[in-house]
Predict the structure.
Amino acid sequence: MRLSFWNWDDAVRGEEAVEAYEHAIEQWGEDAQLNKAAEEASELSGAINRLLNPVSDRDEGVIEEIIDARLSLEIITTLYDDEELSHRMAEQVADFRRRVEKDSPDGFRLDADGRGGAE
């Protein structure tokens, strides 16, 4: 199964969404939002561990936890400089691409759009 993020940006990064995140931070405080993000990340970790357990239900809340964790990350992202986040994310993605290509035994390469295939 391939996860598509085609509509994620529209739903969670639009002007109204960002305004709501900023209001939540003003209303409940930065510490509360950081704690919530840590909690959601922990819950996602637990859901992934349950997913990897061969005797558990394979879909035990993983999708919901992915959404909760990503939303919490979007909220706390507003605490940081967009330019720095974008720059550092681009560096991390480039490093990841190099690792994928380097470790690929079948000559897998990603093009500039992030689509891949064997050479």
About this structure: The beta strands are 108-110, 116-118. Residues 93 and 114 are 10 Å apart (CA to CA). The two ends are 23 Å apart (CA to CA).
